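Ticket #4471: structure output looks truncated?

Reporter: J.K.
Steps to reproduce: submitted the chain below (151 residues) through the standard prediction queue, then opened the result file.
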Amino acid sequence: MEAMRAAWPDDRLDDLNGKVEAGFSKADRQFERMDQSFEQVNQRFEQVDQRFEQVDERFEQVDQRFEEIDRRFEKVDQRFEEIDLKFKWIDHRFDEVDRRLDGMDKRLDRFEGRFERLEGKFDSLQRSLLVGHFGIIATLIGVIGAQHLLA
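Returned output as attached by the reporter:
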């Protein structure tokens, strides 16, 4: 061991000791910087956690809003069902009116046929009256003319 001690003089040991101290100091500084970096990372994680909590709160608010919207849609659906029932009732009533109008159309067609027959009879009567009037007028003229000739 003495031989080893002789190979390492004090100044060489001091130099080695200084380098080891410098290495440890450098390692300490690096560890301090790493600790600071880890602290910064930890702070970032805390910020991220806070942001996640804010996002969770916002999602909760959005969920509540969606539930409210769902309730409104359910009310709208109920109203549409009520309106649909009313439209079906109105459609049924229009069908009844259409059937009645069809019946009236048939009656009007029969009435129109009867009216045309009456109009034909009236035209025939009118022609008969005209011919009859001409016949009466001609007879009267003949009677008057015969009286003037006989007189």
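Triage note (M.O.): checked the attachment and the full token line is present. Residues 2-150 form one domain.
Status: closed, working as intended.
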